[in-house]
Amino acid sequence: MYDTHAHVNFNAYKDDFEAVLKRAFEKDVSVINVGSQLSTSARAVEMARQYEKAYAAVGLHPIHLEDMEVEEEHANFTTRREEFDYHAYRELASQEKVVAIGETGVDFFHTDGEDKIAKQKQVFVEHVKLANELALPLIVHCRGKKDNIGGAYVDVLKILQEHKPKAGGVMHCYVGPAELLKSFLDLGFYIGFNGVLTFDKTGTVEKSLLATPLDRVLTETDCPYLTPPPFRGKRNEPAYVEYIVGKIADVLELPIDEIKKKTGENARALFSI
């Protein structure tokens, strides 16, 4: 199995990351730790050096483009504004076992104001340029406002169509309109499913899964966030990706082993693992 989007490189695991990774590896789960700023990207690269089944993605998350207080499940933190240093990220991304650029994209949930949104889009395009220069896939974060979730996905799609990632990528934690899926798939993108699939009462994510070809489905946790049952309310971790695999199997009415096999093949194909 593959957790294609984890954050064991975050401070939430600073005291026990070795034990967390060990639990994942014991379940034969390979882990891609995803950076959100220069420091966590560097930590992801270092973990990839240390562990055979760990890989890294490097990027600057849109919420780290400004100073803000952020409240998330199992994590309240203050972001410190960081400018996107193309050359610094290029150097990191050139290291061994870096398999993607990201996460990058837009976050209108935490950000308001035309200037700040324009900055997010500009930096997003810079990430696409870096991914294309290094022939790496892109990990895209997209989060819309509560009253207009789909609007952010429309904006992201337009940017990706105008600045096409040559190596494709993944729409991480896809909660957008199912009707936009084909447009992302046409760009060579995979769709990432995580714990939201297991507890979304609206049925939106399940609908998106049913609309996604199995050869474009990726499994992820986004740990420490979005913990699936039976661990809701606790910190998430890569070992719990098995519950995402199980839910996908239930929704698609396919054997778990088939989902493990296919999503593993998908991860290896996109990230050249």
UniProtKB/TrEMBL annotation:
Amino-acid positions noted as binding a divalent metal cation 1 in the UniProt annotation, renumbered to this chain: H5, H7, E103, D222
GO cellular component terms, A-Z: cytosol
Keyword match Nucleotide-binding: no
Recorded GO MF terms: DNA nuclease activity; hydrolase activity, acting on ester bonds; metal ion binding
Positions contributing to a divalent metal cation 2 binding: H141, H172
Alphabetized UniProt keyword annotations: Hydrolase, Metal-binding
Pfam families linked: TatD_DNase
UniProt-listed SUPFAM superfamilies: Metallo-dependent hydrolases
NCBIfam families the UniProt entry points to: YchF/TatD family DNA exonuclease (TIGR00010)
Protein name (Swiss-Prot/TrEMBL): Hydrolase TatD
Source organism per UniProt: Candidatus Falkowbacteria bacterium RIFOXYC2_FULL_48_21
